[in-house]
């Protein structure tokens, strides 16, 4: 089974804009992937996707059970050091996205709309345009795991971390392979 197929098992869906794996978990399975930010006229401003089922579940739980997003938004509003690091995080993310786009993709985006082009060129983590808020914790965590710079992602990771032992991906692969035979 190739890594693209494992990622589709992890995400439980097909993925047509997969570029490469950016981070593996301690158990040697993909944890964060890099996706093409613009395929066939469709934007995906989130370039780092969390594929690890354990981390996705834990972030879902955090979002549902805590008010972490609002706490981070408060920190963004009232803590200048945190805000400045988030601004730099968004700038780095936009630069990473630009590095993944070809001149042809940018020309196509611009021909579709100026707003689409500006989103691909300038938006921050997860495609956020107004950088005064915190969007999806999954994207911040994925960015932190790849770059070790995102302060929101660092806070998320400090609350969940890797498990001591995880068999989720192995079990999914084993189940898929046994059902294919």
Task: Characterise this structure.
- It comes from Halanaerobium congolense.
- This is DUF501 domain-containing protein.
- With 181 residues, the chain is mainly alpha-helical.
- It has one domain (1-178).
- The protein is built from 9 helices and 5 strands, in the order αβββββαααααααα.
- The chain is flat.
Task: Give a quick summary of the entry.
With 181 residues, this protein is mainly alpha-helical.
Overall SS class: mainly alpha
Order of strands across the main sheet: 1-2-5
Give the % helix.
55-70%
Please trace the helix and strand order, writing H or E for each element: HEEEEEHHHHHHHH
> What distance lies between the first and last C-alpha atoms, to the nearest angstrom?
13 Å
* Overall outline: flat
Number of helices: 9
The number of domains is 1
How much of the sequence lies in strands comes to: 5-15%
Q: Calculate Rg over CA atoms.
A: 17 Å
Mean pLDDT: 94
Please give the number of β-strands: 5
List segments where confidence is low: pLDDT < 50 over at least 5 consecutive residues.
none
Largest sheet: 3 strands, antiparallel
């Amino acid at each position: 089974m190739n890594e693209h197929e494992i990622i589709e098992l992890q995400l439980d869906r097909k993925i047509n804009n997969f570029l490469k794996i950016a981070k593996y978990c301690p158990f040697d399975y993909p944890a964060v992937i890099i996706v093409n930010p613009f395929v066939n006229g469709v934007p995906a401003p989130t370039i780092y996707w969390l594929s690890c089922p354990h981390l996705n579940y834990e972030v879902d739980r955090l979002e549902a059970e805590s008010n972490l997003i609002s706490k981070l938004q408060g920190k963004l509003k009232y803590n200048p050091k945190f805000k400045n690091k988030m601004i730099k995080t968004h700038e780095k993310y936009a630069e990473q996205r630009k590095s993944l786009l070809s001149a042809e993709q940018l020309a196509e985006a611009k021909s579709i709309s100026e707003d689409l082009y500006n989103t691909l060129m300038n938006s921050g983590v997860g495609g956020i345009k107004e950088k005064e808020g915190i969007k999806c914790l999954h994207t911040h965590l994925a960015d932190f795991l790849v770059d070790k710079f995102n302060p929101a992602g660092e806070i998320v990771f400090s609350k969940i971390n890797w498990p001591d032992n995880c068999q989720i991906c192995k079990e999914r692969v084993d189940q898929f392979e046994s059902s294919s035979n």
